[in-house]
Write a structure and sequence with these properties.
Layout (H helix, E strand, L loop, with lengths): L1 E2 L6 E3 L12 E3 L10 E6 L6 E6 L10 E8 L13 E7 L16 E2 L5 E10 H4 L13 H23 L17 H4 L4 E2 L10 H14 L6 E4 L3 H7 L5 E7 L5 E6 L7 E4 L8 E4 L4 E17 L2 E14 L6 E3 L9
Parallel strand pairs: 10-18, 11-14
Antiparallel strand pairs: 1-8, 2-7, 3-6, 4-5, 4-7, 5-6, 9-17, 11-15, 12-13, 15-18, 16-17
Length: 338
Amino acid sequence: MYGHSYRPRSTTLATTAITSNSTTSITVADNTSFMAHDILSWTDTNTGVAEYFQVTTTDPNADGATLVVTRGVSGTTKATAVAVGATINLIGNSRTGSEVAQTALTTVGASRTQYCQTFQFPVQIGGSAQTAKAQVLPGGLASPFDFNMTMQLQHMVDDIESCFYYGKSQAPTDNTVTAKMNGLQAILTTNNTTAPTNASAYAATDLIRDTLQTARTNGGDPDLLVVSTNFMSGFATWGQAIQRIPAGETRFGTPIVTLEAPFLHGVSIIEAPLLLPYTAIALTSSEVYVRNKRNPYFQMRGNRGDMMEGDWLCEMAIEVVNESHHAWLQGITAFSAN
């Protein structure tokens, strides 16, 4: 899997504080995404007054963490004191248009190993059970073998979904150590909150902070929120009326139901009973894929003695592009309306 990070919109002043308005060299926490002529700003937390300044370093993304800047551009006043840790915001790049031999930002993706996981669910019915008369099976199914096929398919789908959430990757070595995929919990490392602020009195604003906001800060645009079942109680506690939105059916004829909440405009909510309580996942859905090496299918083995046998099989993995565009949340202990 590959991720291509977008350049962040902010960094922090690192190592040395600014103590004079004549300072023209600053050290930042991360400048690998800055370019010559970028316009930056910082804001005085006491007065709320912002200073704009412009990068004059040639190819700053190749010069470590130090930026040479022109202070007080765009008619702003040079600050006389800026503390270490102050936020430096990226406003945008501004050039003459005649620059040559400029160094571009890297577009090389960062790779991550993922394994396709094989799922196999056997179906076996003895001849005597298969031919028993007057059986009433759920859903109008014709025979015990068909019923067991349906049950095993549900078991396989549940296992696949759970592995999409909680899988931990491992390379195959032999018949006892099989290939295992990484799930979303392991893949989403940038925005992975396990001890949220206000965990014992978690409010709607906390949810936005830990999921949508953190993903959007890193360039994502989450449009899907997957939540554990007890979040339905959370939405009620927060006074949010959840609206049910029909979204068609799966290939197996199962209705797809999404929800929407007034405070999450444009974000679809899906209740996921297989998630552990107090878990939420914010996803930019256009960057999450199910990769099927072998689509789910049923393969008959035939008869062995008086036993009818077959297997549900599939081989797949979940892929996430730009993992910093998504967020994982767990560790809440109680919801609060305040």
